[in-house]
Model the fold of this input.
Amino acid sequence: MLDRLLTDSRRRLATIVAGMFLALGAVAAVNSPAQASDPGDCYTTYSWHTEVAGSHITGHNWDICYLWEPDVPLYVEVLRYESPNVWTVVASGYGTATYNCTGSLFNRYKTTGTAPFDILCS
Done:
């Protein structure tokens, strides 16, 4: 009988202590300041472009992070080829940058982190 009383008392004590730790953890989580994504929580940098001939070119540049962290927009440029080793920035931004074409002349472009490509866009 005494063993049973001690076991019941230990269970109650364990339940109370566990409840206190949960309550303290919830208060600490609510009062913690928001922080930016830790670079260690991001696992790759992903750069790509999309385009529609005669319409637009969009460059994308992001650090892709794990589910518990938001993806981080990185600086991106859309560049137009002018002459050997000369590129002109036609659009820039963070995460995404779009150059809207005003004509359909053949040109060569590249975006941050991607190889040059040819398209009817001027």
Summary: The first helix runs from residue 2 to 31.
